[in-house]
Write a structure and sequence with these properties.
mainly beta, six-stranded mixed β-sheet, 373 residues, seven-stranded mixed β-sheet, 24 strands, Immunoglobulin-like, binds copper (II) ion
C-alpha cells in the first residue's frame, strides 16, 4: 500500500531480527503520541496583512502522526500539520495551521517530518505555481526537513495538503490539509463599510473564523501500532465514497459542543463576520450554509469577483473560499453542509450572535431564541 513506509518498516524489522537475534515486537519500535484532540480552534488565525510591500515570510511546519478522538468514543490515527514558532512545536490540528501571506511575497516553507512518525510526507500548496505545488521538492522521510520557496503569485484562499507517496488521497483522508490565504496588496478589506457616529467615521472590523471540512472513512485497527485500540483509514469505504463521519475542524463535535469549541464562534449583533473555509475532502464537496444568514460575499478566488447574496456555497474537495456577512440579528445560528444527512454524521457547528442592542424588529419579529432546527 505505501511503498515508502513498507521499505522503512521492513528495514527496521530486519535490523531488529538479525541484530538482536530475537523477535522484538515491532509495536515497541514506533511510539505514537496520544493527544486528546486535533480539533482546531476556529479563532486561531494569523493577524491580517496590513502592509503593501512584499516581503519574505517563513513558515515552519511539522508533520505529526497522533492518536486523537474523531467522534465520541472513536480514537483515530490522525496525520496532520503543526506550526513551529520560536522552537516550540504547536499542536497538530485538523485543519492545519492557517497560513497568511500577501500577493508578491516570497514564502519559505520549512517542512519537517517528525522523527516519531512512520510515514513519508510532503506538501502541495495550491497557492504555488510549479511542479506538485511544492510536493516535487518536499518529499521527506521521518526525521527529515526540506525547504520550499515560492512566490505568492495570485491572491485568494487556497488549500494546502500532503501528497506523500504519490497518494494524496490517503494522506488527505488522514487529515493532512489546511488553508493558505494570499491577501491582496494592502490586505483584505478591514471594514465592510464605514459608519458614522457623533465622533465621525468609524470602521467595523471583521471577526474572523477558520473552518475546515473533511469526511472520514474508518475501520478498527491501527497500522504499525497493533497494541493501540483505535481506528484508521478504511480504503474500501473511501474508494466507494461512503464516509462514516463529516467534521468541521477535526471532530464531529468540534464546533457544536461547548466543551470543545461550540461556544467559540461568538460575535455581537452588528459585527462583520469573515470565515476562511477549506474543504479537504478527500472526496466530497461541501455545500456550506449558515441557517438564518445570507452571505453578503463569497469568494472562492479573487475578492473582486465575489459572488454576492449567496445562501449555500459549493466548495469542492481540494479548495478553499472566504465568506463575509453582517450579523444583523441576535441568536444561535447553525452551520451545516446542506447535503443535510451529513449533519447527522457531524457536519455542524454554531455561530452565536449576542444581543448588543435593541432587537431589530424591522428585520425579524418577534424576538426569537434557538435555531428552530
Ligand atoms: Cu502525508
Amino acid at each position: 500500500m505505501c511503498k515508502g513506509k513498507n521499505f522503512f518498516y521492513g528495514l527496521l524489522s530486519g535490523v531488529l531480527l538479525s541484530g538482536a537475534m530475537a523477535i522484538v515486537p515491532l509495536k515497541s519500535v514506533f511510539a505514537v503520541e496520544m493527544v486528546g484532540t486535533v480539533a482546531k480552534n476556529p479563532t486561531e488565525i494569523p493577524p491580517p496583512i496590513t502592509r503593501s510591500c512584499p516581503t519574505k515570510v517563513t513558515v515552519d511546519l511539522v508533520i505529526k502522526e497522533v492518536m486523537a478522538e474523531l467522534a465520541p468514543g472513536k480514537q483515530f490515527w490522525f496525520w496532520g500539520f503543526a506550526e513551529k514558532k520560536d522552537d516550540v512545536v504547536g499542536p497538530c490540528t485538523v485543519p492545519g495551521p492557517m497560513i497568511r501571506v500577501m500577493e508578491g511575497d516570497t514564502v519559505v516553507i520549512n517542512l519537517t517530518n517528525d522523527s516519531n512518525n512512520v510515514e513519508p510526507h510532503n506538501i502541495d500548496l495550491h497557492a504555488v505555481i510549479g511542479p506538485g505545488g511544492g510536493a516535487a521538492v518536499t518529499n521527506i522521510e521521518p526525521g527529515e526537513t526540506k525547504t520550499l520557496q515560492f512566490k505568492a503569485m495570485r491572491t485568494g484562499a487556497y488549500i494546502y495538503h500532503c501528497a506523500g507517496e504519490g497518494m494524496p488521497w490517503e494522506h488527505v483522508a488522514y487529515g493532512m490539509y489546511g488553508l493558505i490565504m494570499v491577501e491582496p496588496r494592502g490586505g483584505l478589506k478591514k471594514a465592510y463599510r464605514e459608519l458614522t457616529n457623533h465622533k465621525g467615521t468609524v470602521e467595523k472590523e471583521f471577526k474572523e473564523f477558520y473552518i475546515g471540512q473533511g469526511e472520514w472513512y474508518i475501520k478498527p485497527g491501527v497500522e504499525h501500532h497493533p497494541d493501540i485500540e483505535g481506528y484508521s483509514l478504511d480504503e474500501d469505504k473511501a474508494m466507494s465514497e461512503h464516509p462514516d463521519y463529516f467534521t468541521f475542524n477535526g471532530h464531529t463535535k468540534a464546533l457544536n459542543d461547548p466543551s470543545i469549541f461550540g461556544n467559540t464562534m461568538m460575535v455581537n449583533q452588528g459585527d462583520m463576520v469573515r470565515i476562511f473555509f477549506v474543504n479537504g475532502g478527500p472526496n466530497i464537496g461541501s455545500n456550506f450554509h449558515i441557517i438564518g444568514q445570507i452571505f453578503d460575499k463569497f469568494y472562492p478566488g479573487h475578492y473582486r469577483s465575489a459572488i454576492r447574496n449567496e445562501e449555500t456555497a459549493y466548495i469542492p474537495p481540494g479548495s478553499a473560499a472566504v465568506f463575509e456577512f453582517e450579523a444583523l440579528v441576535p441568536g444561535q445560528y447553525l452551520l451545516v453542509d446542506h447535503a443535510l444527512f451529513r449533519v447527522v454524521k457531524g457536519a455542524s457547528g454554531f455561530l452565536h450572535v449576542n444581543k448588543a442592542k435593541k432587537w431589530p424588529h424591522h428585520i425579524y419579529s418577534p424576538e426569537a431564541t434557538g435555531t428552530g432546527h
